[in-house]
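The methods section describes the discrete structure representation at length, but only in general terms. Each protein is reduced to its one-letter sequence and a matching series of backbone shape codes. I believe one specimen quoted in the main text would settle the matter. An entry of this sort, consisting of the sequence and the corresponding backbone structure tokens, reads as follows.
***
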Amino acid sequence: MSVRAWFPSPTMSLYMARLFVVRTFALLGALVLVLTSLDLLSESAAILAHPGNGNAQIWVYVTLRVPQIVQTFLPYSVLGGAIFTLAQLNQNSEIIALKSGGLSAHQVLAPLMLSGLVVAGLSFTFNDRIVSRATATLEQWKKVDYAPLPVDRGDRANVWVQAGGNLIEVKQIKGKGTAAQLYDIIVYERTNGSLTSVLGAKHGVYAGSAWRVDGAKRFDVASGTISTIGTTIIGQGVRPDQFTLAHVDPDSMSFGELRAAIQELKEAGRPTKALEGSLWHKLSGPLSAFLMPLLGAVSAFGLARSGKLFVRVVIGMALGFLYFVADNFALAMGNLGAYPPFLAAWAPFLLFLMIGEAVLLRTEE
């Protein structure tokens, strides 16, 4: 059987695909407009609270926040687009005409599922190239309370590391490995759990098994005096990866960056199960666009005149939303270590693929 035999005629396939894609992105546009407006109501006051911020900073926030909203609600829009398209085709008796022409339910759904696969590819590229960068920049901007936007988006910010009984806070880290450089360093020096002094330095570099900092000053808690130390050594035994890999945010990294970070963590002997689940989910998440037409297919079949079309639409929406609930639950279990990473990312997709096929086969095939 040729590939063309899996689809209706080219004209009908393009017609169905166009209906599906237009409704999907129209629904997405409406959701983005409403949700962005609601988000601005809660965040605009915090943005404008920083001296010098104005409308320009509001628009910068919008450009960083909209990609996140698109990433979150694109699967819901695909579900809605599939259900609205199939319900309209059913109501207009176009599904009946296709089936009377000898097409199976799978052939009727093929144009929508192929379009969903294309949307999934676009979604993965969009998430990988745009959303990850926007998320990384927005997270850094929030950490400085919407002060001037950090220029170097690859830096780590606000990292805490424990060294013996002391706590080391670093405001900014540039570079990786032994080439990592620390900026705005504060060391809270403690004895038997009690704070004895606070050491501050502007810059530090890795020196063998410790860190050499320049221009250090120490505040003695007991005497209340500040003394100039100059160049000194801190963080004996603290490895560079403890700073550079102290906080790996999978949402702020592309697929390749997250995979490289996981490899570095493995080499450093650090746990990576939760991050591996997020890595797999970067693939399974966008692929949900391929699954949504199958879950919404229940609204396509059955006589619209029977009065049960609305019930079928509700069932299709319920199946789609149950998938998202199961997906979030499995990912949470993966983050807790209760599920293996691969299972946490792919089990909901495979489960609901089988459920959709079972419903379709039982009712229509």
